[in-house]
């Protein structure tokens, strides 16, 4: 059995419900994790996604901002709720599907100033990563776990348009890179997209709205990730990792600033 999991910061699910449906029909993921849905649970356009063949959902909405959800063609079972956001935002939702625990995150962007003393938003981001790292360290590494979503850090030199210039910009500062590496090491996680598309190929999943032509400027960041625990390496890596960034979606009319990312598992 092939299971395809995708993640997408949709930047308002009501505004882009038609684009979500188009992506579901075009790419046929079995599971789609959404971030920044920007609506409350009852405002989520569930009927449209049910009609597209995705009747199983986990939604954690929030008025005005944040919010995460999981859509699935396959039945979903409950997974632990991870209380990793100190502010109580709707930034995490989990479910089990086909024996895999999927934890979907929208990690705080962190504001503009990379100083936790001067910038509470940056302090919140580091706290979130620290709590998630502690949770990962408690997990059984042989379990089947996926950590995915908009993790809001571009962790590698080739995950940003300019490593040197971005080292002073939130999303690629040394303290964030250290926090991401601590998270990866705590869970023994494999970055599945990089396993499929290794360095030194530049790879981005986000491009600013400021650029008139995102492809021409290509000043992107890889902020959206699919990480797997050691217990899923065989399912994801045997026969070669299969993952991609759907950058064509970023070129659709009135797009999100993020592109979807997907990966395949063999169960």
TrEMBL record:
KW Disulfide bond (keyword) present: no
The site annotation (Interaction with DNA substrate) covers: 258
Cofactor requirement: Mg(2+); Mn(2+)
Q: Which GO terms describe its biological process?
A: DNA repair
| Single GO MF annotation | metal ion binding
Instruction: Give one Pfam family.
Output: Exo_endo_phos
Keywords tagged on the record = Hydrolase, Magnesium, Manganese, Metal-binding
Q: Which InterPro entries match?
A: AP_endonuc_1, AP_endonuclease_F1_BS, Endo/exonu/phosph_ase_sf, Endo/exonuclease/phosphatase, ExoIII-like
Per the record, where is site Important for catalytic activity? 224
Q: Family per UniProt?
A: Belongs to the DNA repair enzymes AP/ExoA family.
The protein in question is named: Exodeoxyribonuclease III
């Amino acid at each position: 059995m092939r299971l395809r999991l995708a993640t997408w910061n949709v930047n308002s699910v009501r505004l882009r419900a038609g684009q979500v449906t188009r992506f579901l029909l075009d790419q046929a993921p079995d599971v789609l994790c959404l971030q920044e849905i920007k609506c409350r649970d009852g405002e989520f356009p569930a009927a449209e996604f049910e009609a597209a063949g995705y009747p199983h959902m986990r939604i954690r909405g929030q008025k005005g901002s944040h919010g995460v959800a999981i859509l699935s063609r396959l039945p979903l079972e409950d997974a632990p709720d991870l209380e990793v956001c100190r502010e109580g935002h709707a930034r995490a939702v989990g479910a089990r599907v086909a024996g895999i625990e999927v934890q979907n995150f929208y990690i705080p962007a962190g504001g503009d100033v990379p100083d936790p003393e001067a910038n509470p938003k940056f302090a919140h981001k580091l706290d979130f990563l620290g709590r998630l790292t502690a949770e990962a360290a408690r997990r059984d590494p042989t379990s089947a776990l996926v950590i995915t979503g908009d993790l809001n850090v571009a962790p590698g030199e080739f995950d940003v348009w300019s490593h040197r210039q971005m080292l002073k910009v939130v999303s690629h500062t040394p303290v964030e890179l250290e926090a991401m590496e601590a998270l990866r090491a705590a869970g023994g996680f494999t970055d599945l997209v990089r396993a499929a598309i290794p360095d030194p190929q530049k790879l981005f999943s986000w491009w600013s709205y400021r650029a008139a032509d995102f492809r021409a400027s290509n000043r992107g960041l890889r902020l959206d990730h699919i990480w797997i625990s050691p217990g899923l390496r065989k399912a994801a890596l045997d026969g070669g990792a299969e993952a991609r960034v759907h950058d064509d979606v970023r070129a659709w009319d009135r797009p999100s600033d993020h592109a979807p990312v997907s990966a395949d598992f063999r169960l």
